[in-house]
Amino acid sequence: MLTFPRNCFSFLIFPFLLVSASAKEETRNPFQVERLPERAWGSLEYYTLYLEPSDSFVSGMSDFKFWSSGTLWIFPTRDKEELFLIFQNAGLPEEWITRLLVAAKPVPQRPLIEIRPDADIVEGLSPQQRNRLYPHIHTESKETVFSDPYALMPGGIAEAALFPSGLRPELIGLLERLSFPRGRTMRFSDIYHVLGHTHSEEERLRVMKLLLREKAISAQLQIHPNSDTLKIAQYWSSGERNKRILPLLESVAATSGVEKIDIAHLLPSLPRRLLNTYPSPEGWRTRDLAPDCFWTSFSFFSESPSARLLENVAQTFEERYERASPPLQLGDLILIRREDDSSWLHACNYIAGGLAFTKNGSSPGRPWAIQRLEDITFRYLEEGKVGISFFRLKPEYLQ
Amino acid sequence: MKQCSLFLFLLSASLVFSSNGAENSPSAGEGPSLDRETVKSGPQIFKSRKGPWGQLEYYYTHLEAPDSLVKSVPTPSSEIIWHLPGKTREEQRKLLESAGMLASQVDAIFDNSNPSDEGAALFPPPDVIAELSQEVRGRVYRTLRSFPENPLYRTPLVMNTDDVHQWFSGGQLTSETLDLVDLLSYPIGNTLAFSDVPFLLQQSSMSERMERNLIRSMTRTRSLILRLRIDRDSDLAQIKEYWTAGFKNKDVLPLLNSVSQSPEIDYIDVIHLLPPIPRQHLNTFPSLAEGIDGSYPDSFWAAMNFFEYLPRSEFKDLRQVARYAEFAYEPANKPLRYGDLLVIYDPERDLSIQAAVYLADYIVYTKDGRSVLRPFILTRLPDLVSRFQGEIPFEVRAWRKRSRY
To answer: Are residues B282 and B302 in the same domain?
Structure first.
């Protein structure tokens, strides 16, 4: 997370992106083809795909490898009085608190207490109790799956499971019951408990993949005889920055009867190659840093992206970007920041019609994808009041 | 360039296609499919044969270099120049007459050139150019093609059609110019070519903008928009197996998994099934930045980098390509698979002419030459080799990347 001086950006909140605590979750048919109103980008239609990381990635995750160790709560204290207060503040009934304190064991030579909670307590916690209790479950130096839970897609397990997963309904039900809200997003921590209910490695993989599912938009530009091809070409070429796509766009527009083309053909070089893929160990990275949202969004127009951007994104921002005036253009930088301390939470690039190109976090388990801006911002609603600001490369910079 | 090791390596590979017809019978599922089924009229959409790749559909798209690139390339002189270096006037006459030119036509050329300048360039008058028959033009230009000093004849515009007007339809050439192109086009292999850009530039009414449009039109290249149809009958397990290329292209698996489970998705553009580098380049022209190390990508660079995550510039050097191919590739057993390397090879000159990467049903990914005015494309193998048929002896040989690479 990056922190910038407050005066280095300004706010330009677009009405359709206004994020507030009253944002609504929608229940949508994930297979439905959506059509966007015709604008400078032309006429777009899209549908949603659900991406999951590979078997090899999932099977390397520690939660997957060590599932059989069972649920273990670790608290950074040796003081049972403090523990009592944590349970009480979380709203646990007295009978559970008594059982948990009896099960509590100090960890030798470390300022920690560990508890193996009974299954009925794990399953019996209400979402609110889970949300209040789990942030306290971590060591003195390390987050756990409880303090840093899985971030589920908007709509949580219910929405993720709309798409076939191959899981038994009772497992999906269990996942849904154990997920809990944090802010406006749904989270999940009890992976060890749920994996204990699985019958095979295949089923464990499917559980993990369901949790890690990400939505990805597949969009097509519709071309019809009345399309304003000059205007559409202007939009997608983004001035001189994405002119490489012009020959194809002009050709397709001139081919009578061609009705649509996948917008993957129209993206600049880097997002085109990264779209709907997961980071590779061979890719751009330093010893400690891997491509994240900032590297991705600041490299959007880059023909030859550099690992250097992983290190000095702030400098690039200050030198190359200026506030974007409406209407938004292809590749405009969208910054989501926390209002109270000016820290940046996320960055992505505008594509068209409320769609953006994004990489959520630096995890190799998160893909590059086009997502709806409202779905992207939804993740950050738990972070208190957030603001969205829009920037554009200065005219003198092509990338 | 030392080709010997490449030659030996080439011989070890599977012969896919050759100019004399060996190994060339399009038996079921093996040879290049020459018959295509039209799906519907309008923008002719064609169906591939069904195979382990699934059911593919495609339509043609014609790419012309963007103005920004055309502006960066000098416009050729409007003077028609033929180079027959190292030849005396008598030898030049013999060459031209044996190609079918009349003695009077050769006389006219010599009269228009400097008679004392033995072996130097010839300057054919435009009326001689205009009166050559298509067959004679084809033979004369084949002679000119053998000399690197004649770039317009050595790398002509190749049109994968016998209808010039259809090839340029939707373009910016006037009908008068198109008639001239039609008049001056000539057979090359099984297709048509055009080289007489200087002749067209001599048309007095040409403004600078029209000249640029003409040069731009001369970069016209046919490519495919290719898509994979997904329906209830699709064997999704087999399709996934095919397009992940034995795990070399595993990045496409999440997307294929998703598409295969979405009942309302009926096709997916094959751009999503390509590895990162070809996906990045498909249907685009090279950027000027790609020549920053002194040369631009060609078909070998495109083919050898197909499965790489970051492009390797050493593949711009054919010696490095040969060295790498020797240990990283092995002869490809039939049937061909996604990602197999195909090389068009002239055994007489021991020369590797062009490389391509096999996708499915004899559709390949390639780039024609090193020019910035040639895009990275998808094309059908029969179309790719059509220009060589009857022109030179050639073979198409196939390799597969070893699984550890």
So the answer is: yes
Q: Which of residues 302-331 of B touch A (CB under 8 A)?
A: 309-310
Which residue range(s) make up the domain with A103? 58-210
For residue B124, the one-letter residue type is P
> Which A residues 258-287 touch B at CB under 8 Å?
258, 261-262, 264-265, 269-270, 272-278, 280, 282-283
Q: Please write the tens of the pLDDT for every residue from A12-27.
A: 344 444 443 334 444 5
Within the 195-234 window of chain B, which residues sit less than 8 Å (CB to CB) from chain A?
Answer: 225
Q: How far is A141 from chain B (nearest CA, A)?
A: 34
**pLDDT value at B214 more than 50:** yes
| DSSP secondary structure of B309-331 | SS--GGGGSHHHHHHHHHHHEEE
| Residue A311 sits at the chain B interface (C-beta within 8 Å) | no
Let me know whether B258 and B333 are in one domain: yes
CA neighbor of B325 nearest in space, from B361, B346, B348, B301 = B301
Q: Using an 8 Å Cβ cutoff, are B223 and B160 in contact?
A: no
Helix, strand and coil percent figures for chain B, each rounded to 5: 35, 20, 45
B172 vs A: CB within 8 A: no
Boundary residue ending a domain (A210, A225, A255): A210
Residue A239 is classified by DSSP as: T
| Contact status of A240 with chain B (Cβ, < 8 Å) | yes
Query: In terms of domains, do B209 and B98 share one?
Result: yes
Instruction: Look at residues A149, A152, A196 and name the one whose alpha carbon lies nearest to residue A176.
Output: A152
Tokens of A207: 């559980």
For residues B242 and B228, the answer to whether their CB atoms sit within 8 Å is: no
Please determine, for the modelled complex, whether the ipTM score is greater than 0.90: no
Q: Residue B230: name the closest of A59, A31, A127 by CA.
A: A31
Mean pLDDT, chain A, as a whole number? 87
Model pLDDT, residue A19: 40
Q: Which residue has the tokens 């050769």?
A: B106
Nearest neighbour of A31 by CB, restricted to B264, B277, B283: B264
A113 and A146 fall within a common domain: yes
Provide CB contacts within 8 A for A57, sequence distance 6+.
A278, A364, A365
**Strand B395-401 to strand B341-346: parallel, antiparallel, or no bridges (unpaired)?**
antiparallel
Which residues 120-159 in chain A show a CB within 8 A of chain B? none
Alpha carbon of B91: minimum distance to chain A alpha carbons (Å): 44
Beta bridge partners of A188: A150
- For A79, the token pair is 């003081």
Our CA-based measurement puts residue A224 at a distance from the nearest CA of chain B, in whole angstroms, of: 13
Residues B266 and B336 in one domain: yes
CB atoms B63 and A31 under 8 Å = no
B207 and B272, same domain (yes or no): no
Query: End of a domain among A210, A237, A269?
Result: A210
- Dist. CA B103–CA B82, nearest whole Å: 17
The 10s digit of each residue's pLDDT in A281-323 is 777 766 667 788 999 999 999 987 877 777 778 888 888 999 9
Tokens standing for B50?
């069904």
d(CA B32, CA B27): 9
Q: Output the pLDDT for position B9.
A: 57
Q: Spell out which residues of chain A touch residue B277, defining contact as CB-CB under 8 Å.
A: 273
Q: Helices A169-178 & A201-211, crossing angle to 10 degrees? A: 40
Mean predicted confidence (pLDDT) in A77-97: 96
Q: Sheet with B186-188: list strands edge to edge.
A: B157-159, B191-194, B186-188
